[in-house]
Amino acid sequence: MAKLKIKYYPDPVLQKKSEPLTDFGSAMQKFFDDMIETMYVEDGVGLAAPQVGVSKRILIACPTVKEGEEYVIVNPEISEERGREMGSEGCLSLPGISGQVPRAKKIRLQFQDREGKPHNVEIKDFFARIIQHEVDHLNGILLIDRVDFDKRQQLLADYRRL
């Protein structure tokens, strides 16, 4: 496995919609493992492929932060959202800042696993927040796009000072 290079805002790859993944071969299996390693090295709980420069619909999530409990989620689609709550979020592509972001408490998620097998699950609470944050990355949306104008300006000013 190898640590991948994180892309930082305003890298253009972070602001475009990712393409579906169709190849689940050995090169992609290595990439999944490299994403997992990168997420842990960077102290994250989630990582989307655009954050390492690959515009594909792939994300890694591990709400427990325990090695071996990661989820490889490919071509995710959120089909249902229930409840709302505010919560603090940070982002590996915007290091050093965080903001209060509204998210659904529960989601219904369709996706493929690392072998391409389809799944349809309900996810809630912190895990749902991680998935929504990472799916946003796959759609070219950053946490600064989820806060009001004044907060966005403040966060960007803080980010530029770091």
Cα(first) to Cα(last) distance is 30 Å
β-sheet strand percentage: 25-35%
Q: What is the fold named in CATH at topology level?
A: Peptide Deformylase
Overall 3D shape: globular
- SS content category: alpha+beta
Kindly state the mean pLDDT as a whole number? 97
Number of helical elements: 3
CATH class descriptor name = Alpha Beta
Query: So, CATH architecture?
Result: Alpha-Beta Complex
Written description of the protein model:
The model has no long low-confidence stretch (mean pLDDT 97). The protein is globular. Strands 1-2-3-4-5 form a five-stranded antiparallel sheet. The protein has one domain (12-161): Peptide Deformylase, CATH 3.90.45. It has three helices and five strands. The chain is of the alpha+beta class and 162 residues long. Helix content is 27%, strand content 30%.
